[in-house]
Amino acid sequence: MTITRLSPEGFAAALPALADLLVDSVAGGASVGFLAGLDRAAAAAWWRSRAAAVADGSMVVWLAGGPAGARGTISLAYADKPNARHRGEIVKLAVHRDARGRGLGRRLLAVAERAAAEAGADLLLLDTETGSAAERLYEAAGWVRYGIVPEYAAGPEGVLKDCSFFYKRLS
Questions:
Q1: Is the pTM of this model over 0.90?
Q2: How distant is the alpha carbon of residue 1 from its chain centre?
Q3: Residue 11 domain flag
Q4: In a domain, 69, yes or no
Q5: What is the DSSP letter of 101?
Q6: Is there a contact between 10 and 65 (Cβ–Cβ < 8 Å)?
Q7: Distance CA 124, CA 112 (A)
Q8: Residue 43: what pLDDT?
Q9: pLDDT at position 171 over 90
Q10: Is residue 23 a part of any domain in this protein?
Q11: Which domain holds residue 86?
């Protein structure tokens, strides 16, 4: 499985694959900001709305793929405020249901962490559904949970769920 950092042109070409990954993640119960029934057109539109950020470098997107096609993605958004240039946020980590449980999520996370450190960011943030497999991944990767907000967001099925907030120091 190869993990590729997408250039702006590569990002545009990968929109269909990114949309498919997002649809699969939501259909598989991942709480990534969308409700069940997300269709490919809406998923592609969401990704397309990130094109300017990818083009100006404020967001970096990686795509993992192999013989079976796209199997995972992660995005890293850098803070745009002058007093926050030292931090970034993991905004999307999605692994296709067929590829889960094989370490791809951990590999994607490590790639984003390395890139952030190389870019001079030494603090990363993220949030995820409390009690989820994603939360266990972040804890195992050394992320620190600093709080839980009750009923922060609806999961794909529309039911409000608690959300855990994490940070990780890279230096």
A1: yes
A2: 18
A3: yes
A4: yes
A5: T
A6: no
A7: 10
A8: 97
A9: no
A10: yes
A11: 2-124
